[in-house]
User: What shape does this take?
Amino acid sequence: MTRPHRLLSAVALVVGLLSVGAIRPAAATVDLPTRLTDQEFWQLSGNLSEPNGVFQSDNLLSNEVVFGRLVPDLVARTKPGGVYLGVGPEQNFTYIAAMKPRMAFITDIRRGNLHLQLMYKALFELSKDRAEFVSRLFTKPRPATLTAVSTVREIMDAYWDIFPADEAAFLANLTAVQGLLTKVHRIPLDQTDLDGIAAVYRAFYWYGPGMTYSARTNLTVTSYSAGPGTYWAMMTQTDQTGQAFSYLASEEKFAVLKDLESRNLIVPVVGNFAGSKALRAVGAYIKDHGATVSAFYLSNVESYLQRDGSWGLFCSNVATFPLDDASVFIRPSSIRLANVAANSQRSPLQFLVFVRQANGTFTTTVQNAAQTGLTFVPDRIAGATSSASLVPPRSSPAPPAAVDDQIRSGGLVPIKAEVSACGGK
Assistant: This one.
């Protein structure tokens, strides 16, 4: 064999190694961007995405009441500086704030989730701290008592009890959100995307911190019992020692997200987990930049994939990711057990009823659900036509320790072993 042939063979061998699954040279340098330009951010999101798909709900809020209990194990088992992958709404922020990845991609089958993530991006960037963020999220005036050292429980309690601002305040906040995206970041959103962001944002104004998984952008009346947890419950959940884990638990956690969003490093992607493009494209981008997937939050998407027979395609997509032995799936499916346990411990449902007086002021009374005979009516907005409005209870009992142990031991699964077991290629 001549020397040129030997050189070509060596080059071919290196290229071949780089093209096999997640194999990379041991000394590969991670060169993920420290910041994406606005143009790069939007182009990357578009280039990775698939056409809009459908799902059974708008999924504006997670329903995994104890997802934060996975955080200590997640931090202990994953390496810093990797890439986080996720799906769905706000629960991703808790994992991202804890892991502090270099970059994150949130992939969802619905373009509505991209609208939701863009709304959050703007709110993180517009807000200087947690209290301002929650004020903007629900369009409620900020109480003067809230400071940087306020607990998440104090913050969420304060906003629960405050009546929302008027329509003019909402429209001003919406203008700020859309203006940051289209004028500051110069993202060329078309009218459909702008309308989608407006619809998502209005839902948060409409339902308030009592919103649940069953909240809809068409603003239908929902029953409190239809969802296992409110936004209040999602943010204030703790472990058995009382330690809070949500992304609003501290200013430090909030700052992690604000920083990543400001540098355009949380990228929303539209795609089906079993599709032919999105996940593979995300994996290729990470691999091309010498990085690995630290964690992939799945929610319960796999149950839908197994139901329609496409889980094998998803597994094959994941097999193309750059992984290491510490890469994990975050699977909170066992949390449903905790929901049942928590709901069984609830005290009789009570509502705080706002009654609008003729002079425009409000009086409140506390009534049991049996007394009112009503479900949660999210019309607690100044200028609403009805005379009475209901606020569901702030109730979030901790699940039994045995259930908590199941969550901590069963929620994190090594990705490489899983992909190997399913025969992904």
